[in-house]
């Protein structure tokens, strides 16, 4: 058992008065925090926390142990600060993965700036649409555009993102304009192979109700650029991220549809493996991306 680590977890639980809040601060799952506390109590042979459905507080033994944990936590923090100070400059190889269209259009122009800013940093970039295993494939940082699921990874939101339903004017002239999600059953809907919702598209209407419609069509692609080309050619309609279709909507090449509805999609996240000693190269690049994208993503400036 990692006793110093468990003491730091316990101190966070007492400070937060909540397993969930402590887990969020530490970048752990709630169950992992709960197991740490249970193992700690077993090792010490004492109950450290009073738990009810509404409150959590230290026992007398827990309060005494908490004060000792604080001293350990301070010493660990001072040691980490000393090491971080010595290695604060981003250096070494950063393996970065991102979806192909977003990477080529919005990340690639930033890579030269990162190389110029940090002379000791090397970057290996892989742009691809498949869902990669961050840990098993050895990535330091991955960009994900989704509704983020709970996992053992750490994530930071770097930008907003919407999915927009759209089609070319030529398609709408032939097939008509859908007025409600149910109308999509009569249309050629282009599907994205890596989407978690696949054939089932969700829409939140003006009244706040969630509507789910099972769509189908003649094109399914694992690359957003294939779908965009087909959209422009009038081959069907698609539900696509705004950073992909936004410029075409602004130029009139594509028409937004069901504008009174929202698709509950997610956002753009920087994701990396959980590691208490977060490498300066990862921290620096994540901060850089937040700085570039968070305020007003370039794809939202057209006002569509």
**Tally of domains:** 3
Q: Total strand count, please?
A: 14
Largest sheet: 5 strands, mixed
Considering the protein shown, what is the CATH homologous superfamily of the largest domain? Periplasmic binding protein-like II
Order of helices and strands: HHHEEHEHHEEEEHEEEEHEHEEH
Please mark out the parts with pLDDT under 50 across 5 or more consecutive residues, or reply none. none
Shape: globular
CATH architecture designation of the largest domain: 3-Layer(aba) Sandwich
Number of helices: 10
Kindly name the structural category.
alpha/beta
Report the span from N to C terminus.
55 Å
Task: Please name the CATH topology of the largest domain.
Answer: D-Maltodextrin-Binding Protein, domain 2
Radius of gyration, Cα only, in angstroms? 24 Å
Helix % is: 25-40%
Indicate the CATH class of the largest domain. Answer: Alpha Beta
Mean pLDDT: 86
What spatial order of strands do you see in the largest sheet? 4-3-5-14-6
Strand content: 15-25%
Describe the protein in words.
There is one protein chain. The protein has helices at 3-16, 19-26, 30-44, 60-86, 100-107, 111-117, 169-175, 224-232, 242-251, 280-293; strands spanning 49-51, 56-58, 92-98, 121-127, 141-146, 153-161, 163-167, 189-192, 200-204, 210-214, 220-221, 237-241, 255-256, 266-273. It is α/β, with parallel strands linked by helices. The longest helix is centred in the N-terminal third of the chain and has 27 residues, at 60-86. Strand 1 (49-51) and strand 2 form a beta hairpin. Helices cover 39% and strands 23% of the residues. The chain folds into three domains: 3-84, Winged helix-like DNA-binding domain superfamily/Winged helix DNA-binding domain (Arc Repressor Mutant, subunit A, Orthogonal Bundle), CATH 1.10.10; 92-161 and 266-294, D-Maltodextrin-Binding Protein, domain 2, CATH 3.40.190; 163-256, Periplasmic binding protein-like II (D-Maltodextrin-Binding Protein, domain 2, 3-Layer(aba) Sandwich).
């Amino acid at each position: 058992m990692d006793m110093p680590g468990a003491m730091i977890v316990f101190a966070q639980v007492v400070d937060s008065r909540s397993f969930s809040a402590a887990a969020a601060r530490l970048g752990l799952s709630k169950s992992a925090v709960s197991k740490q506390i249970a193992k700690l109590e077993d090792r010490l042979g004492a109950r450290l926390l009073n738990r009810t459905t509404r409150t959590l507080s230290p026992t007398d033994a827990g309060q005494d142990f908490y004060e000792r944990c604080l001293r350990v936590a301070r010493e660990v923090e001072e040691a980490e600060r000393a090491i971080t100070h010595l290695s604060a400059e981003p250096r070494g190889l950063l393996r970065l993965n991102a979806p192909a269209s977003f990477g080529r259009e919005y990340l690639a122009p930033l890579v030269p700036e990162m190389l110029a800013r940090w002379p000791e940093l090397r970057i290996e970039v892989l742009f691809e649409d498949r869902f990669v295993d961050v840990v098993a494939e050895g990535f330091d940082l991955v960009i994900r555009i989704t509704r983020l699921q709970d996992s053992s990874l750490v994530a930071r939101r770097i930008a907003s993102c919407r999915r927009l339903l759209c089609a070319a004017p030529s398609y709408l002239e032939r097939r008509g304009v859908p007025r409600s999600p149910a109308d999509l059953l009569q249309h050629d809907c282009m599907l994205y192979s890596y989407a978690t919702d696949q054939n089932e598209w969700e829409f939140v209407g003006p009244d706040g109700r969630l509507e789910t419609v099972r769509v189908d069509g003649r094109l399914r692609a694992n690359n957003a650029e294939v779908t965009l080309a087909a959209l422009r050619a009038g081959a069907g309609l698609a539900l696509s991220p705004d950073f992909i279709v936004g410029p075409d909507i602004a130029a009139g090449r594509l028409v937004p549809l069901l504008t009174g509805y929202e698709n509950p999609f997610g956002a753009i996240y920087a994701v990396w493996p959980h590691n208490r000693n977060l490498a300066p190269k990862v921290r620096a690049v994540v901060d850089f991306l937040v700085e570039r994208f968070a305020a007003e993503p370039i794809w939202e400036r057209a006002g569509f």
